[in-house]
TrEMBL record, chains A, B, C, D:
Pfam families membership: Ion_trans
Species of origin: Epilithonimonas vandammei
Protein name: Ion transporter
Topology in the lipid bilayer: Multi-pass membrane protein
InterPro entries: Ion_trans_dom, VG_K_chnl, Volt_channel_dom_sf
One term under GO cellular component: voltage-gated potassium channel complex
Domain of life from the UniProt record: Bacteria
Compartments where found: Membrane
Length: 274, 274, 274, 274
């Protein structure tokens, strides 16, 4: 299965075309090496930003982190500039979501050079992690990713309705608990009680707020048993969609889409099905 | 697919018929605009009631909330009166569940005008949120909602039996934990232990009560592993029902209901299936 | 569908046969009334025993509870004696599980009359709740209950193996956490750490023990993500068994068992399928 | 279905062949008895190591545990030596994963005889529990185990992608919560916030870290509802794979693999399907 590059505006002159092929495509060996290198750099850089926020680490290794970030930003900047240089329609790239993420992941560092900023600005750099998707875009894995996303998309309407039911149920339960617990024991307002209801129905159960009165506990028991039965619904929706999509399989080679449930190979041309 | 209005008693004279069409139907542009306006007002009003219960907010913006509620109640009252005026059989509407909810969501405000009431009465207004269902009733989404509800209804008997098993299991586990923990560590009575058992089996796990003795922990481990395996049962019930209903699809246009598992279009007339 | 009574040894003489029909069968109106009465009494009595353990309640209403229990025990005793009198093979009933439960649910009261006992003995009376199953045995609901139980039975071998994997995984994780957390932060021994591992993998998450060191938290993250993926396995096992059993449907009337997936009525004789 | 022994290098001379058959095979009565004995010893020994780590127990029964461990290690050592003696290609066994586990589960004891070691070294002996798999390898249960493992293997690519999505989602949520909660209330660094995000999305919910600001709670609500919907995805993946594998059933006797969904017996030769 061939996948089109996102920006298929190949420039005509020699060196720009070569850079284009390395940066945007992954057919060639150089292209693939570039992708892997970029992937490692993104993961490394993300881990760095995360570790940087640990107070003790920052105090001790402030300089090392600064230089590492400096180095990474330089590389990403060069890559960003090359990406702009070697395509035809620059505007399309710069204002595409992918281009904005590329830009946002380098700019915070330069801002911090000019004036001292609120250190949370630095966390915008975390958006770099989204760049991973671009690389996987070109990879083999895309097919399975598509499968999951499209199954979710097709069952989305049912899931929306289910969520609407859930939200109304949660709001009413929250209001009831607020009344039952008389605004005490952490149920100090309806939004607070709604937070408790979500924590309970999703079976997360932090325990930062929990019912203290007998009536509140009784109501909780009912809510929990409901939540326990209800959890089956989204699973049922998604599972049945997954199953349906299986029998919708379309062969990539010959296009035949009339396959039985358990098809592993196209029954017309023998192509392996994913 | 056409959906009948809930109260199909159209009055004959001109202006009442027009109002009827705006309020009760959503075929016309005016009707749809009315529905969307009402939806926004309901959501806004619900959020207002919720936020109102936050202590700091009430203290600072008491007046603003009062006037907003005043304004909303006036609108809902006018709508309520119009609903009564423009249909034939008024009794049917007033004493229908939908009519009672409409009434209950405006009356608390008027009561609070006459004499100061326990402030929890005000929360009855939260029932307004149920009015959302009326609007969605008329919408496209209804079909999927029906799908979920009817799947749950058809598997309800199996779910009831499962819940009966669960409840008996929970009560016995609760009694055992009460004995094992010797009435200490929060397991002060059987109802309390049953509350713990529900919190545990549904995997909510607040941690407000948790076993402290070695034997209690051993029993908990068994209970948790059971709960983990048992959670598959309602999911299995609902999923298999969902799957079955898929193959029960009936075409809305030609009525043909003999479709394969993966039917997306009616095989007789080509109508798109939901 | 006809269900045989558990003890089909009908005595021949008149009054004993009549009592037998009331107590053991539910064909007649008297039999059904008896069953419903018994059901109410069992539920009432179970709730009573539960409430009795609440300290404040016992102090205030000691006498009332004593008399209620006295009254209930008398009725259950009479019922027990009638059950013995009106069947042929008494030994079979008395030593059957059902007979032993009947006996155990009345004896603690009589023991407490003779000498003061450890008050936990009284909780043996909770076994009464198991008597509910006898009543439902005779009811319509049995069919669906059988469905669930037999689906679980058929997938039990897969579930056993899954549990074996789980237990070994849990024990190893427990040992690792004990080492990683160095026996501190609640991970004071391997059994304690195994308890934590079960609490975590089943997603109960009390929070009475939770990792405190960075390495412990990292290990926990891996364990939680594993547990999250693994939960799909028992669900998958049970769901696929449920689906299989559907197509195994056997018509109660004509015995035909060749039905398609979505059969609601027997395709030979038109009997409704459950 | 016949299962080949792991090391099929049977020596030719008499007594070694007999020992080989007892230790490595389970066809003979002696072989099966040996397996069961070994299983009991492994379980007993594992429980011993676990209990040994409980502080009070160690203090009181130090000697008893020492002698039990001494006794068990001797048996395992004899078994290890016999395993080496009675096969042809010793290297293959010794350096196979199974051989290394066998070695690691006896060596810590001997090391502790020579010089006092960090007591966590003793926990390496816990690896003994993995030896259970060898015994089950030869047993009937293997078939179902294979079923589960191969279903997971076939859906692994989808699960990997799902986990990749999850991890990126978790990291971004963690970073957002760190900013929202302003590094307070336990969200002291991004790794810490990521730990919280995993605890929340997997619905474990310890409650050691929980949001305290209104905005943090709002974000948590969204995260929890997402997690609740997302949990359906791995279940859907695995369930649909389980279902597919069912129809892939291959008869052990005649090799026919064209069976319907609900096949319990091979339709060619009547062999029972698992």
């Amino acid at each position: 299965m061939k996948i089109k590059p996102e920006f298929d505006l190949i420039p005509e002159d020699g060196w720009r075309k070569k850079i284009y092929e390395i940066i945007y495509l992954s057919d060639t060996k150089a292209g693939r090496t570039f992708d892997i290198g970029l992937l490692i750099l993104i993961v490394f850089s993300t881990v760095l930003i995360m570790v940087e926020t640990i107070p003790i680490v920052t105090l001790q290794y402030y300089k090392e982190f600064y230089y590492a970030e400096f180095f990474i930003t330089i590389i990403f900047t060069i890559e960003y500039l090359l990406r702009i240089i070697c395509i035809k329609d620059r505007k399309e790239y710069i204002f595409s979501p992918i281009g904005i993420i590329d830009f946002l992941s380098i700019i915070p560092f330069y801002i911090s050079l000019i004036f001292p900023v609120w250190h949370f600005v630095a966390i915008i750099r975390m958006l770099r992690i989204l760049r991973i998707f671009r690389i996987f875009n070109l990879a083999d894995y895309m097919h399975d990713g598509h499968f999951i996303v499209s199954a979710l998309k097709h069952s989305s309407r049912k899931i929306y309705i289910f969520l609407l039911f859930m939200i109304i149920f949660i709001v009413i339960i929250g209001a009831m608990m607020y009344v039952v617990e008389d605004g005490k024991n952490g149920f100090s307002s309806i939004p607070q009680s709604v937070y408790w209801a979500v924590v309970t129905i999703t079976t997360v159960g932090y325990g930062d707020i929990s019912p203290a009165t007998p009536l509140g506990k009784l109501l909780s028991i009912i809510v929990m048993l409901c939540g326990y039965s209800i959890i089956a619904v989204p699973t049922g929706i998604v599972t049945s969609e997954f199953r349906r999509r299986r029998s919708d399989l379309k062969c990539d080679r010959c296009g035949n889409d009339d396959h039985g449930d358990s098809a592993r190979y196209c029954k017309i041309c023998g192509e392996k099905m994913v």
